[in-house]
Specification:
92 residues; alpha+beta; 4-stranded antiparallel sheet; binds zinc ion; two-stranded antiparallel sheet; 37% helix
Length: 92
């Protein structure tokens, strides 16, 4: 029986250590969150009924998943710097 008690004590100690590690991880995560402002990936999609529309084109170099930034006259890839000019609409 005494052995069992000892085992329980050991478990409690390791749990405390794990909690400390988790706390440190949380602190690190918080710092990373401040650096990384990664939000709004899904704003590039527009759901219309059952269809999901892409609002921005994918980069031709980087492939699917890399959205290009929408500028007034062109699209640019923030990943590789690829620029694709929009077809100019002739209104004149
Ligand atoms: Zn790219």
């Amino acid at each position: 029986m005494t052995e069992e008690v000892e085992e329980v004590k050991e478990e409690e100690e390791t749990e405390e250590e794990e909690e400390k590690i988790e706390e440190e991880k949380k602190k690190k995560k918080g710092a990373e969150k401040k650096k990384k402002k990664r939000k709004g990936l899904f704003t590039h999609y527009k759901i219309e009924g059952d269809n999901v529309k892409r609002l921005l084109p994918f980069c031709e170099r980087c492939g699917i998943g890399y959205f290009m930034a929408d500028h007034s006259d062109r699209y640019t890839c923030g990943h590789c710097g690829f620029t694709r000019y929009k077809p100019t609409e002739t209104e004149e």
